């Protein structure tokens, strides 16, 4: 059942076949009673592993009485959590929903509340719907389902439409310009850093001259105190998605997405027609002379199925797919966000009982008080004011 994914996890599997491991009660070992024993059968002041709740037995061969009592303690805690913390997580979800239900996306791609206050200038900082984002950059999956995608995103029809073709060419030209300017800025910054390093490595003091050099070599567009760059030539260009809004310009995507498409074309030229000429036209390095056996087999399969298309057609199709994946105006993003926090918090509570006593349930159980502390109490003295994400 565990291997097929029907029910159960590796933790349940290990509890049946190996051992129940250390029992946790509210994030701690099993405490001692007023008699200085965890159970009457242990010696006083015994700090050993078994006295602290370590169960070496497994369900397959059965538990000894002390281990059985320890596991009953953990199971009782799970039952209490199921009864008490379900109410807490339910109210937490309701509070989130009532607070965020007025947050929607508008036609200018901003996310605003009921009073019109701007919360985000672009939903998720990229404007892509979270329900469609996992499939936006699945290029090989798109090629395997080419017939369906071509019927939905007709590249020939799109490129024959003057407005669409013009907007795609305009976005392409601007993206190339942005890439050139960014390369020149990076090169200039690199040269200045090398010059600064050469000056710093000298063994004599230049005094005020170093201050003047450092002031000159600073990146003008990274200066926090100066909102307007002192050197306009060194200011970074606007992203193409900002200059040509995707909602008004079909084919306008982020620079990162364009790079992803081109990198995939470079890595999989055997799946497209005339990919070598296209890559050479883009000014990139040549391809390997011989494809691997797997690549040749994949190419033969796609040729037999008639799935080969030119890189330009593939690029246009993926741009249209990106455009289709943008968040629709009027979407209740606040309700989606509230639900995405509230529903897993309820599952945090319910899963505690199934992992009674195991170490994996400790962080799960303590998740509800943490959410309440952050979202409801808004306490000034939080237990964990700073969290690190690995």
TrEMBL record:
Family the entry assigns: Belongs to the RNA polymerase beta' chain family.
Any matching Pfam family: RNA_pol_Rpb1_4
One annotated GO molecular function: DNA-directed RNA polymerase activity
Gene3D superfamilies (UniProt xref): 1.10.132.30, 1.10.357.120, 6.10.250.2940
Residue intervals of the RNA polymerase Rpb1 domain: 1-54, 62-385
Source organism of the structure: Vitrella brassicaformis
Alphabetical keyword list: DNA-directed RNA polymerase, Nucleotidyltransferase, Transcription, Transferase
Superkingdom in the source lineage: Eukaryota
GO cellular component labels: RNA polymerase I complex
InterPro entries: DNA-dir_RpoC_beta_prime, RNA_pol_Rpb1_4, RNA_pol_Rpb1_5, Rpb1_funnel_sf
EC number(s) on file: 2.7.7.6
PANTHER family tied to this protein: DNA-DIRECTED RNA POLYMERASE (PTHR19376), DNA-DIRECTED RNA POLYMERASE I SUBUNIT RPA1 (PTHR19376:SF11)
Annotated region described as Disordered, given as residue ranges: 217-246
Gene Ontology BP annotations: DNA-templated transcription
Keyword Transmembrane helix in record: no
Name of this chain's protein: DNA-directed RNA polymerase
